[in-house]
Please model this.
Amino acid sequence: MLKRFFSYYRPHKRLFAMDMAASLAVSLMGVFYPIITRLMLSDLIPNRRHRLVVLYGLCLLLIYFVRMLLNFFIQYQGHMMGVRMQAQMRSDLFAHLERLPFSFFDTHETGKIMSRLTNDLTDISELAHHGPEMAITCTISIIVAFAYLLCIHVGLALIVFACVPLLVVISALTRNKMRRAFQKSRQSIAKINAALQSSISGIRVTKAFTNADLEIEKFEEGNKDFREASRDAYRSMGEFHSSTTFVSDVFNVVILIAGGLFLYRGSISFADYSAFVVSVSLFLNPVNTLIRFMEQFQSGVAGFERYVEIMDVPEEVDLPQAKPVGRVAGAVTLRHVTFGYGDEDAVLTDVSMDIPAGATFALVGPSGGGKTTICHLIPRFYSLTAGDILIDGISIKNITAASLRRNIGIVQQDVYLFNATVRDNILYGRPDATEEEVIAAAKRANIHEFVTAMPDGYDTVIGERGVRLSGGQKQRLCIARVFLKNPPILILDEATSALDNTTEILIQQALDELCRGRTTLVVAHRLSTIKNANEIAVIDGGRITEQGDHETLLAANGMYATLYRQQFRETDTI
Model:
């Protein structure tokens, strides 16, 4: 994992080297103060060499000015290096998420994924900047400071050094506990983000059902977990800091007593003793800095582990023999298809069907029968458990996913629109389309007049998930998007079931235009909309129980006939 982390430094090698050099220079400059202090106390002041006192003081001031400039560089450019690494990781993670299979998003909440992209990467950025800087500069500072202390007085230096293992032992004892606590804290933050994202996205439903108190209660559960996790994390941090601070205080007491005894016996001069007391902070400060850095280190490591956890999820990949295809004719064949989600029981069992190019094939049946699952399997959103699906006689396993999906247009009941302009949402069907093509697609979807009547026309921002549009307008915008894509295969997954009758007629007109000349698979709840389909299959319990055209299925007097008559009785009653 360490090798993987350091790989992100490669694009910034020059800046990293400059940052480390500046940090090293700053740490070395710190030793000039005790050296000049010792020189003044032992020589310059007793011998009344006032000019040299002023000269050395001015030199020290110049050193501090240079150190100020170096500190500015470290804080600015060093942090920018961390930010660039963070941005690269975020780009890698987002690109990886875009390539993950549908099954990943079935089991991971959006808010928790967002937490990986924000909070965790911020901690990693801080670690990326401060980690090597702390490790290298503090280590060198400790070595240089200890060597200087030895030059002043070997006995006192060894006494100070003997206390270091106590700090190391305390750090080791509390480190793992603090790491586990911070990992749990990160998980609780992700849980809060997930609850927040869900509640805000569903705020209109919450208000409609007056369930604000329920949402607050659900949010507070996550908030309570966060408080408890943070309490454990900060308790561990408190134990860590208080114990290490106590040991540092013991250092000072030991130096005070031992130095006083050495001074009393005459084995050290007052000037050297004063310089030693001043210089010992040069040794202890980097030691304490390294120890306290463990807090940031643990938080950064926990964030990187969670980052790697997603990055290690296998991406959706094409088989080695898969080849891209151009525009297909559109014949779709399912051969003995069996499929189940994860470890669940099979949703589809031994399903076979043939859809000739340009034909309309409808799927009907009870909810949960597997109709939508078939719609997901044809574009290869999920891998088959058994059987095969062919496009123009070619197995979809042998077609690259990108070229396969370019040939398929999908219109669903639950339309997703982006918080962007009308134009941008239509262009999602084909980003390189011209303005004329966008307008032509809108006209064919019967939405051009509505768009031009809006204040900003095609530049109107429609809000998150198209909140400023009605259900029918959203659906027509989605249809315009598919018109622009112009795929040979079309999947309509209950595209009109959530609309009122008047709007449905308008949408159905646009859909009829869209289906013309394309292979169309229709999942329909309202059977009146698929009477003219070339073939209709009834899906029940994951199997095809009936198949034929409308008249044939009515004559068979099976489930289709029952569903059809039932719907018309309901219509007559209404």
